[in-house]
Design a protein that fits this description.
This protein is α/β, with parallel strands linked by helices. It has two domains: about 5-105 and about 305-335, NAD(P)-binding Rossmann-like Domain (Rossmann fold), CATH 3.40.50; about 105-300, NAD(P)-binding Rossmann-like Domain (Rossmann fold, 3-Layer(aba) Sandwich). About 35% of the residues lie in helices and about 15% in strands. Helix 1 packs across helix 12 (about 305-325).
């Protein structure tokens, strides 16, 4: 067991808002935190030398080379300040490094951002904003549709999906949902109809994705599934970028099969999101093309980005480390094959 004020943490990909939220939360713990603005990769892993633990983010690539470098520097626990962990080679980590994460931190924030994207795309408020700033008060081309009585398809009935469904019900929409393990009791109470994915694709005017990225969900939105959808469907993704095969989405936007797309996540986002490219050229041709469509709204993985969420992320992350420091069984541990109770060992 170590005293908390003796614990040293190497904190990677530190943005100003991360530093502020973690310094505030750390007043309750007293860790020694070194904040590094660089991503964790093969070149920067050496910065962890002398630290007890590493704190990493979703865009840090924790591959075999990074794992070996961390182990060489004495690191055996990585605290992920995110819910996702598809950036981690868990199989290679077995017996070398253990991971803890923040399983939930901003369900209302993510759902609210998804709803904001729906309303923005539908009523063209993003385009109207720039028009009126140029003294162009024409409303030609800005027509939307009423959400009332339309059908929204929610993919995933976890915490975020359920909150999103309830917000859409509040707008007078008919809500259908699909999940391999659906929350049927909740659905019955709220008036949400549980359907299979094919039915959801066929019947929804708006499809919003709130499911994890797994082998089963990777590229679940693709040429074949888009063909099942209503012409002009709106697709919203605040989940994981690789839920959508972006090339197929672009083709469907060109043909008009997809009428609107709201993307807070993107397949290759780790090269761009959270960074300032305003004075550089984007080499990702697909992302560059998406940004040209007037009916596409791209935000930089900010659905989680609320004051409440940052405070929760910081506190849960630092408490995860406290549990390890006190030699207690890890909470929120990430593992390949969890037991029935969710534990790894």
């Amino acid at each position: 067991m170590k005293n908390l004020n003796e614990v040293k943490i190497a904190f990677f990909d530190a943005k100003p808002y991360d530093v502020e939220s973690f310094q505030t939360a750390n007043q309750r713990y007293g860790y020694q935190i070194d904040f590094f603005p660089s991503h964790l990769d093969e070149k920067t892993a050496a910065l962890a030398h002398g630290a007890d633990w590493v704190c990493a983010f979703v865009n840090d690539d924790i591959n075999r080379q990074v794992i070996d470098a961390l182990v060489e520097n004495g690191i055996h626990l990585v605290a992920l300040r995110s819910s996702g962990y598809n950036n981690v080679d868990l199989r290679y980590s077995a017996g070398k490094i253990r991971y803890v994460r923040v399983p939930a931190y901003s369900p209302h924030g993510v759902a609210e951002h998804a709803l904001a994207m729906i309303l923005t795309l539908n009523r063209n408020t993003h385009r109207a904003f720039y028009r009126t700033r140029d003294l162009n008060f024409s409303i030609n081309g800005l027509m939307g549709f009423e959400l009332y009585n339309k059908t929204a398809g929610v993919v995933g009935t976890g915490q975020i999906g359920r909150i999103m469904a309830e917000k859409l019900l509040g707008l007078g929409m008919k809500v259908i949902a699909s999940d391999p393990y659906p929350a049927r009791e909740w659905a019955a109470q709220k008036g949400v109809t549980i359907v299979n994915l094919e039915t959801l694709y066929q019947e929804s005017d708006i499809i919003t994705l709130h499911c994890p990225l797994t082998a089963q969900t990777a590229h679940m939105i693709n040429k074949a599934t888009i063909a099942l959808m209503k012409p002009g469907v709106m697709i919203i993704n605040t989940g994981r970028g690789k839920l959508i095969r972006t090339e197929d989405l672009v083709d469907a936007l060109v043909s008009g099969q997809v009428g609107y797309a709201g993307l807070d996540v993107y397949e290759e986002e780790e090269d761009y999101f959270f960074e300032d490219y305003s004075n550089r050229i984007i080499k990702d041709e697909i992302l560059a093309r998406l940004l040209t469509f007037p009916n596409v709204l791209v935000t930089s993985h900010q659905a989680f980005f609320t004051r409440e969420a940052l405070a929760n992320i910081a506190d849960i992350t630092l408490n995860n480390i406290k549990v390890w420091a006190e030699d207690k069984p890890l909470v929120n541990e990430v593992c390949l094959e969890p037991k029935a109770d969710g534990s790894c060992q």
